[in-house]
Amino acid sequence: MFENTIIIANDIIAFVLEMVALYLWGRWAYSMVDNRLLSWFAVIIVVIIFIFIWGLYFSPKAPQKLPLVTYYILKYIVLTLPSVQLKKSNSLIMVLIIVLVAVNLLVQWQLGRGNWNF
Predict the structure, then answer these.
(1) How many CB atoms lie within 10 A of CB 83?
(2) pLDDT the model gives residue 116
(3) Closest CA to 5 of 13, 84, 29, 103
(4) Residues with Cβ < 8 Å from 34, sequence gap 6 or more?
(5) Structure pTM?
(6) Alpha-carbon span 68 to 51, nearest angstrom
């Protein structure tokens, strides 16, 4: 019972962190281009790339299974790298994201939920 509660809570936190990373990747892409129309095009391209990589390697039914250490390292990088853009504007949120992702991945690892096998 208690382990199921932890699994559900951790899965919800993981989903929220994934959505935050997706938003931050899009925000980064938008800020890279001066032209408003091209900025939105950049957002669409970056979001599509994020979804493709996520679906290929990190989703529960991913067709490509990575070695476990590689899986966790790459997932950590993909989820935390876009938060670096918050360094100047909101460093507390940046640190919070970095720590939450680390804790979330550690709990996933402890529960044996990395590189899911359904």
Answers:
(1) 23
(2) 55
(3) 13
(4) none
(5) 0.85
(6) 20
Measure the CA–CA gap between 113 and 5, rounded to whole angstroms. 14
**Two tokens at 49?**
């790339």
pLDDT the model gives residue 114? 65
Q: Six-digit token pair at 112?
A: 């044996």
Tokens 């970095």 appear where?
Answer: 98
pLDDT average per 10 residues of sequence, the chain (118 residues) = 82 93 94 92 95 90 87 93 87 92 92 62
Positive or negative: CA dihedral 49, 54, 57, 62: negative
94 contact partners, CB below 8 Å, separation of at least 6: 83, 84, 86, 87
As a whole number of angstroms, the distance between CA 39 and CA 7 comes to: 38
